[in-house]
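queue> pop job 88
queue> type: inverse folding (structure -> sequence)
queue> payload:
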């Protein structure tokens, strides 16, 4: 009889603990920030808006956001980039207008450009006597 009691006690303890974790670890409703695997620009993020969101209306509704935006004239991505403090970042993460937020990663292509230039020079003989 005592064995059954221990089994039920353990089972009920596990269920209670799982329910407590679910209550205390409830999702915050904030969008996760996508992490960049390389070097990032500290405090800078790229924000992609959902289709149909009017970017200018969003900026007009929040002058602090407008001031923090550094790039917003893109045609490929419906969004913007900027330097956002924790408060503003969390406001964006909670916004229904935002589809995704990613860290602003640093990308360099200098080596590739140099190799392509050398290839072009070689193919067209532009570099005769230079290399």
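queue> result:
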């Amino acid at each position: 009889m005592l064995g059954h009691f221990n089994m039920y006690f353990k089972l009920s303890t596990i269920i209670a603990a799982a329910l407590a974790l679910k209550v205390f670890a409830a999702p915050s409703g904030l969008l996760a920030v996508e992490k960049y695997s390389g070097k990032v620009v500290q405090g800078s993020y790229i924000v992609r808006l959902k289709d149909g969101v009017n970017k200018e209306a969003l900026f007009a509704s929040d002058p602090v956001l407008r001031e923090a935006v550094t790039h917003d004239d893109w045609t490929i991505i419906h969004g913007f980039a900027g330097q956002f403090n924790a408060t503003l970042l969390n406001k964006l993460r909670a916004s229904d207008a935002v589809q995704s937020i990613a860290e602003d990663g640093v990308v360099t292509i200098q080596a590739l450009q140099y190799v392509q230039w050398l290839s072009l020079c070689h193919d067209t003989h532009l570099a005769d006597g230079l290399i």
